[in-house]
Design brief:
The chain is 28% helix and 40% strand. The strands form two sheets. It has a seven-stranded antiparallel beta sheet with strand order 3-4-5-9-8-7-6. It has a three-stranded antiparallel beta sheet with strand order 1-2-10. It is globular.
Length: 180
């Protein structure tokens, strides 16, 4: 009887060890290509994004905002796209979007730093980083980058303690297809 119990005990610990080994091997970041149908931006996110759409006020107009977001490794990744109104410049859209984002984060404008990553073949309109507060009241560091092509304006953001290699992977994945 003791031999049977010892055998089950060893088998149980072997199973626990095997499960722990598999869990340790699972990647935190599972990068995949994402984009918006009919829009020129392609990127990679480290997790399967949820999709959302809503109409937002923007520079005295209303715009349809399309979003992709996901959480991985204690970070939130978000990519958003909108088509700018005809009588508004991309710079005006970015300025209004920046103000709305910083207000949402309760970030102090005088503590917001310019962050301009090196992008190959992609023109960044504006980039900033700021310490802010999530909706639940917890502190968060935001890295936000805006891109524009034609009437499309995009926001790419990471919220949380992002490491340089993860931020670099995201930024290097950004691709704008030629305007048609």
């Amino acid at each position: 009887m003791t031999e049977v119990w010892n055998g089950r005990w060893l088998l149980g610990w072997a199973l626990v060890g095997g499960v722990a080994t598999l869990a340790a091997c699972s990647p935190v970041f599972n990068w995949r290509d994402v984009g918006f149908p009919g829009r020129s931006l392609q990127a990679m996110l480290p997790c399967k994004p949820e999709k959302a759409e809503r109409t937002v006020p923007l520079a005295g107009h209303r715009a349809d905002l399309h979003m992709l977001s996901c959480d991985a490794g204690k970070l939130t990744f978000a990519i958003a796209a909108l088509r700018k109104p005809n009588d508004v410049t991309a710079s005006d859209v970015v300025q209004a979007w920046t103000q709305a984002g910083q207000l949402s984060l309760r970030a102090q404008a005088d503590r917001t730093r310019v962050w301009m990553p090196v992008l190959q073949g992609v023109v960044a309109v504006k980039a900033w980083q700021a310490q802010g507060v999530r909706h639940d009241g917890s502190p968060v560091l935001a890295h936000v980058l805006f891109l524009a092509q034609g009437d499309d304006v995009f926001q790419v953001a990471v919220y949380g303690p992002v490491t340089p290699d993860v931020l670099e992977t995201l930024v290097e994945s950004l691709r704008l297809s030629p305007a048609s």
